[in-house]
Specification:
By secondary structure, this protein is mainly alpha-helical. The chain is built from four helices and no strands. The N and C termini lie far apart (51 Å).
Amino acid sequence: MIQARFQLDEYTTRVLDVIKGKFGLSNRNEALQKMILEHGNEYVEPNLNEETLIELDSIYENHMKKHSKRKMTKKELKKLLEI
């Protein structure tokens, strides 16, 4: 694990403290990690291991078995899209 020291401005400190309190975390380091885990994938794609890919395939297969025969009518689609 890499350790680093940061100088945080007042706003950043307040945001981390709110995250810390909202999720019951013990320090700002955990709050920063939580924020990065939630929003980091917008900037960097997470590494996927083989187990994750197998799990995703399983979820997809189960979904297709359950829903592949059902067809949506135009009326249902319009209602879903609120057109």
